[in-house]
Structure to design on (175 residues):
């Protein structure tokens, strides 16, 4: 069970606590008036929308925490981190294909990482929680939180899309 205590952390301490999974993401999304979308994403419209209750029935509690409440799974806890077969990673909330296995790499961070998403698969927005500025990555179709993108990845893009495995499913490429 994830603790919901409030901690005041900033900068490096917050990043370290979040990365180790010791502190869950505390800045949770507020729900917009429609009861379907997070308030900060209310300006964005998504093709797939559900009420909070519907999301809870469609997702496991851990998936719900990551996709709908911007939680972060513990590093090295996802089987998708060690998935090396050819195939496609899709959103666990709406099944939109997000990443090709051809762009996956081992970032040694404990989360599945990719150097580029599939075309028109993800959206981004600024995330200023914990007193730092990061770029949050979400599913373009349902708005589900996937992870963050950083500028310390490999060539050719130099980007590292650091994704929560709980936010995705994997479909192997047919042999």
């Amino acid at each position: 069970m994830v603790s919901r205590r409030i901690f005041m952390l900033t900068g490096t301490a917050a990043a370290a606590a979040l990365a180790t999974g010791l502190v869950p993401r505390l800045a949770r999304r507020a729900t917009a008036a429609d009861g379907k979308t997070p308030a900060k994403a209310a300006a964005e419209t998504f093709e797939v929308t559900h009420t909070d209750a519907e999301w809870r029935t469609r997702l496991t509690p851990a998936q719900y925490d990551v996709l709908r409440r911007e939680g972060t799974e513990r590093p090295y806890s996802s089987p998708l981190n060690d998935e090396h077969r050819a195939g496609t990673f899709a959103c666990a909330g709406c099944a939109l294909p997000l990443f090709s296995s051809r762009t996956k790499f081992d970032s040694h961070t404990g989360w599945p990482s990719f150097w580029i998403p599939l075309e028109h698969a993800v959206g981004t927005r600024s995330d200023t929680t914990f007193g730092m500025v990061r770029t949050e990555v979400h599913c373009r179709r349902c708005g589900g939180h996937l992870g963050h993108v950083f500028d310390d990845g490999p060539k050719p893009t130099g980007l590292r899309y650091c994704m929560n495995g709980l936010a995705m499913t994997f479909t192997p490429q047919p042999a």
